[in-house]
Amino acid sequence: MRVLLKISWEALEWERDHGIDPKFLKNLALQIKEIHDTWIEIAMVLGWGNIFRGMAGASNGMDRTAADYMGMLATVMNGVAMQDALESVGCQTRLMSALDIPEVGEQYINRRGIRHLEKGRIVICVAGTGNPYFTTDSAWVLRALELGCDMMIKATKVDGVYDKDPKKFEDAILIESATYDQVIKNDIRVMDQTWIALAREWKLKLKVVSLYKEKAILKAIQWEKEWTTIS
User: Fold this and answer.
1) What percent of the chain is modeled with pLDDT above 90?
2) Which strands sit side by side in the sheet containing 177-178, from one edge to the other?
3) Which is deepest, 115, 118, 180, 220, by most CB within 10 Å?
4) Where along the chain do its domains lie?
């Protein structure tokens, strides 16, 4: 099985207001290693929200293109941190960037990424798609298709998708399963609508889990509950 993880880096702030909590990152690396040791091939797409939020920068007067490039560079920083954490627990990794930064990692090439996965390396995809105006959602779906992934897992602060914001509404209900058609019709905020439509077209399996629940990613892969499944 080949899985693409999208890690919400805001979740890795843990109790901080920015950056990365090193202990929490180490714990995540150990969880990923446990999954990888079961012969599951793992690729990752990283966000940038813990360092810089491109849309927020644009809304505050910054040029959107400049803001998005800053966001891409922030994902590279997160990628280096993730690579270091994984290799410290014994995983082989390859950092692959949509921007050409040879001193830090390889340039993302589809066939090379597949080959790394086949050789048992964890592939960490950074810099989004390398284009402004494209979110990490776009990179998530595109990389899942390009790398031939069987499942997409979004690991975030909340334990799934709710019918409304659980932070604002105590009566918010966890949606255990939904179809892509229901997600689009009800405007459920899983990812950008454009990429929801592409995921639906290619019948990608998608799960949303909490980074804060013990072994939630492994449980989702093993089809246990405690998440939202979209298919």
Assistant:
1) 37
2) 106-107, 93-97, 122-126, 41-46, 2-7, 151-156, 206-210, 228-230, 177-178
3) 220
4) 2-153+215-224
